Amino acid sequence: MTTNTHDGVGNTGESIAVEPAVTDLPGHRLVLGAEDPMRLVSSQLLGPFTVAYQTYGELNADKSNAILVCHALTGDQYVAESHPVTGRPGWWERLVGPGLTINTDDYFVICVNVLAGCMGSAGPKDIDPRTGAQFGLNFPLITITDMVAAQRLVVEHLGITQLFAVIGGSMGAMQTLEWASRYPEMVYCAIPIAGAARHSAQNIAFHEVGRQAIMADPKWAGGDYYNDNDAPERGLAVARMAAHITYLSGSALHTKFGRNLQDRQAITFGFDADFQIESYLRHQGRSFVERFDANSYLYITRAMDYFDLAAEYNDSLPPAFENSPVRFCLISFTSDWLFPTSESRRIVHALNAVAASVSFVEIETESGHDAFLLNEPEFFRILAGFLRGAADQRKLAGPS
Amino acid sequence: MTPSETNNAARIRVDQQLIAEMITPGSRVLDVGCGDGILLDLLVHDRQVDGRGIELGQEGVNGCVSRGLAVVQGDAQTDLHNYPDNAFDYVILSQTLPAIFDVKGVLHEMLRIGRCAVVSFPNFGYWRIRAGLAFQGRSPNSESLPYTWYESPNIRFFTLTDFTDLLAELGLKTERIVTIDGNGKANTRGRIGHWSNLLTEQAVFVITRK
Question: A330, A361, A387: best mutation site toward chain B, by most B Cβ within 10 Å?
């Protein structure tokens, strides 16, 4: 039962069992694929394995008020609470909570840590029972399809036959599109934000830079660094620094930092962090390595690279949404050059081509790709309106 | 039902009210150039249609989506070709035709993706407009044409007779014509003659393929 459309591609025999290395994080745990292993797109079998998820609000009697939030590359299931590792606010705390745009007084919000993640779901830092050691690069390659297939098992475990909404930004938008395409009957409305139906060559290129930075760190050691307790932090930090630049717009960077100097009156004629932007990026890199596993970063960036919803349909996107009953709301941001509006528009055109119900707005902002995580009142207003309209149509006793 | 609807009721234009009455409840409707979504909102809530909209202006689109309407930002002249044949029962173009460059192309696309095209437009043959031009030497400016010449989005200035000529040339079938006179009074007409071209301030046409 726990398969996707790729079964029959081949059989690599035995199922890969995963023993969780991290168990002391708060939230729910679910063991999947124990009796019936999950067939990955790579054709390998996975199970038993653990997924970690978090929920907010209450599921109503007929289980119709569930919203699945899909997190981005470096996000996790701690959407609306202090992060257990960093103590920082949840990544969508300004959007998800009692009385907020995604009102947890009305909706039951679920967020699952993606497969290959490092916050409790099966990933490369977990234990391979065959060897008793961490998987490292022996962990199977995971795709967006696999992540969503695992999420579907969580949703079914909760007894939910149809999610009221699936929503996510960036890689979360990819998962949202995958949900709507593969399990349309389980999704009432889908809200992909700052996303794309495929990863562009430019984005694959940026990811490759990040991966090479990790792999060039001698401490990475072919992915086998867990026992020495000495992770490739320099490499991961550089990957994060490069990626962080892509999340912001050039003008936002210039507005925020300009050519301002960091704690000094003049340039030092050296390679210290003279400029504020350098200091800022170094800080971003340093704080990231505290909470993220380098191998997970390799795996999840790869999953994004491999994502192309049209690939199964001879590179034509509309058939991915043929006869879709799902109500779509796409949102993009003007200054986002990582997932530009043209990518959302491509999806809108595909949805129009199959006469699907679609709303699409482009929000004017300077904040670049990161806008979906920031305080963007127009974005919140539109999202709230779309959810209200959909709740009306779904006859949910939703927000008044 | 909702507070927004009662507020909107006062703002519904007479042509929009007429169009709403022409649409069969429960049908599939695309409103091209749906603006702030007043008509679409009315259709979705009062006529229970499966309604979609396209609007060029971002402000209008954002307003529509935040009211729960399925509206996308797009251009009537480039984006209609994305839709499949016969996707809609009605494709509406209310007061937008004068702003369209490729009039024939848009009419053709509307009737490819929809069974009926519903088009409303101001009549430049209306006597007040003629009189304004003839006696005052001023370009049209009235309640149905509330723009100064330098701010008007309209690039096509046509009369009721011009439009019926075009439909004949394109071989399209006129199912229904409702004209609105200067007092806002609506009349259903079988054909457009000299007098109706003179007395009509704006008109709504329902057009199908032959």
Answer: A361
